[in-house]
Design brief:
It is built from twelve helices and 13 strands. It has 348 residues and is an alpha+beta fold. A hairpin with a 4-residue loop joins β3 and β4. It is globular and about 100 Å long. The N and C termini lie far apart (82 Å).
């Protein structure tokens, strides 16, 4: 070995020793015990590990920033309550239904709630969840980012806006949840995933990650695609409701009966439980404590509603599908909520 190589080797060894000594001096006051074995972690060794582990440390840090999605905690079946005669009669109109006590996770009453059924715009609960989860540096969009209504989004059935209209992302989330805007759901899917087909694949992947075994989505809006509907069970829709409760931007919109968007456009809720009775619609009833969630309707799904009500520190979540009209749906849901709280089904 030449003197030059020997000298280079000595310099490398000396540098490593200096790093170890520096680490010991710097980390003397920062030693901590291992949670598993009570060993002392030497700060100098930590520095060396960072040097020699390279990409592995970066990968570990990335994994911490993107933890595995939380799995849903199942609802507790087996103690189905008995509805009074008037509610039993109304319940016959539903394809599926369920109401649960959120704290105990006990199912208070249900009908076919594990059976996949067409869910129409209840699909937008998953769309909203995925939208807020995708916002940030990776997507290039934030709540206050400006978006322009595309021609493809404005071409969907029952559109609320016109191509070229400009909004914020937050506007479009509010439009999805308040007035069930199909074009808003489509636009956000395009902006966040490139096109709606990719976004729908991501919706279904997210459903699998959560453990929603019955869910199969076919569009961001819930509109049928080539005659095929989005499906989920009423029980899984309530798991979606629980997931969106973590995001104030969604929940604020869920509880609004009216909103003025950033461009001055006014929108109104499709949820009769958030409205006061009128001469034209005397069946509307403002339900005390209602804070969410979403309506839905297609011919295949019937009239659907997912709701959440909080009273006296207790919370119930519910979902119904298949009613022949929104009036029938709202009469049943408002009575079902009162039954749950007033009959003692929800325990303190």
């Amino acid at each position: 070995m030449s003197w030059r190589n020997i000298l280079l080797l000595l310099l490398i060894i000396g540098a490593i020793h200096l790093l170890v000594i520096y680490g010991c001096m710097y980390g003397g006051s920062r030693e901590k015990k291992s949670e598993t074995a009570g060993e002392t972690v030497d700060a100098g060794n930590s520095i060396l590990k960072k040097i020699f582990s390279g990409g592995r440390s970066a990968a570990a840090a990335a994994a911490k920033k993107n933890p595995e999605p939380e799995k849903v905690v199942p609802w507790k079946y087996g103690k189905n309550g008995v509805l009074p005669p008037n509610l039993q009669k109304q319940a016959k109109m539903a394809k599926s239904a369920v109401i649960v006590d959120l704290a105990s996770r006990q199912v208070l009453w249900e009908k076919n709630s594990l059976q996949p059924v067409a869910v129409a715009s209840l699909t937008k609960l998953m769309t909203a969840l995925l939208v807020v989860e995708k916002l940030g540096k990776a997507s290039g969009l934030e709540l206050d980012s400006k978006v322009e209504m595309s021609r493809s989004a404005a071409a969907v059935e029952s559109r609320k806006f016109n191509a070229g209209d400009k909004f914020t992302v937050k506007d479009m989330i509010r439009a999805m949840m308040i007035c069930s805007a199909n074009d808003a759901a489509t636009l956000l899917s395009e902006r966040l995933s490139g096109n709606s087909d990719v976004f729908v694949r991501e919706m279904n992947k997210r459903a699998v990650e959560m453990g929603l075994t019955s869910a199969k989505f076919n569009s961001p809006s819930g509109l049928p695609q080539k005659g095929v509907n989005s499906f989920a069970s009423a029980g899984d829709i309530l798991h979606l409701c629980e997931a969106v409760m973590k995001y104030p931007v969604i929940m604020d919109a869920c509880g609004e009966s009216y909103a003025k968007l950033s461009n001055g456009k006014e929108i109104y809720t499709t949820n009769g439980l958030l409205k006061y009775p009128t001469k034209a619609r005397p069946y509307w009833k403002k339900v005390d404590g209602l804070f969410g969630f979403k309506t839905g309707y297609t011919k295949a799904a019937g009239s659907c509603l997912a709701f959440g009500v909080r009273r006296g520190g207790r919370t119930v979540l519910g979902c119904v599908t298949g009613f022949p009209s929104s009036a029938d749906r709202e009469r049943f849901c408002s009575s079902l909520i009162e039954w749950a709280f007033q009959s003692g089904q929800v325990k303190n």
